[in-house]
Amino acid sequence: MRTRSIAVAMAAGLLAASIIAGPAHGATTLTVRAGMGFGKTIPAGTARIMAPDQDGNPTVNVHTDDVIHFAGAAPALLPQGQEPMSWWDQYGGGSGRPFSFFVSDPDADSQGVDAPNKVNPTVENGNANGCGDSEANACSYDGSDADPVTGVLNPGDTQQFYVKITASPNTTLWALNPPPTAHTILRINVVPNGQAATTQAELDSAKTSGLAKDLRTYHRVVKKLSKPTFTSSGGHRVYDAYAGYDTETVSILRMLPQKLHIKKGDSIEWHFHILRELHTVTFPFKKGEAISNSGFVPECDPDGDGGQGPDTPADFSATPPCPQGSGLELDLTRSLTEKTGDGTFPGGSNTLESSGLHGALVPHLDGMEGGTDPFTLRFPKASGKNGFRYLCALHGSFMSGWVFVK
What we know:
14% of the residues lie in helices and 33% in strands. With 406 residues, the chain is an alpha+beta fold. Strand 15 and strand 16 form a beta hairpin.
């Protein structure tokens, strides 16, 4: 699922592709790395589309009928004439747009589920219609359908995608990983057969240099944000912390500082400097784990959002998991997405304090916190030597931190 596993999608292995180069053109397949993880020991990844820079944009030059294999993530391809930043501002991102990541679910939930919102099926499922899973089954795309919604080739939630570019020479298409930045937009130039196209060697070189840059960024940010900073207010300190951190290309899946030592009465303000990832700050750890394990609920919608029928549980022991005529959707529970608590954490297992789901891609909806406003907690009691452990309820135990209160 794209929204839960952006970092996981980045970690997919690069597949080799053969190259047929030179003016005597034959069909060529180029592998373009569109995001990847930094390795098992580094909880971060890059959303950079790794292609040679041309006038400030990653660019790949292809011939008509060449195939692009996107690995690591599959960006959406825009119709001819659509400028990516303008397109995103109108159709992507926030609430109520066709390519919003989350939308309201007006249907009644199945018994025991409280999930007023769901992953947008348009984004999750895509419109590739059975193609794109292999080189032999590449989706053909020329971008000639000018409609800014239906004309988009959206691969959906996939880590490998093959597309045959069938546009005429001297056509430019754009592909983007949301949210678009100078490094997450790919320009695809269709050049005449007599003109040289991008080679795999050039793409591999861009991957090597881009990955090195982003690794340096990761280490620089972690070093800086691991040093505690604070302000003073009313005789107590308010410490800064970060629930993940995103740059234009790098997504860091860590609580920073991972361990904070404070005194009774002090507070911590968690900042959500996240462009593409989604996070929560949830205390205590075990309650957060339970929310993490139940935050996404697959449901079957028998009659669409316009019908009166309630959702029913999906049954993955059956194929398909929903009855005929019923659509599969992924709902998000209120316990994952909604802000909970009174801003004070005294410890113990009976209190739940959670920021709710935050991120620049998360709209403000009923039952969903959304946005990137900071989340502040005051700690009135000592923690003991083991500290108070907390986590991101979306990413689970591997993205956790500790607060030690004395």
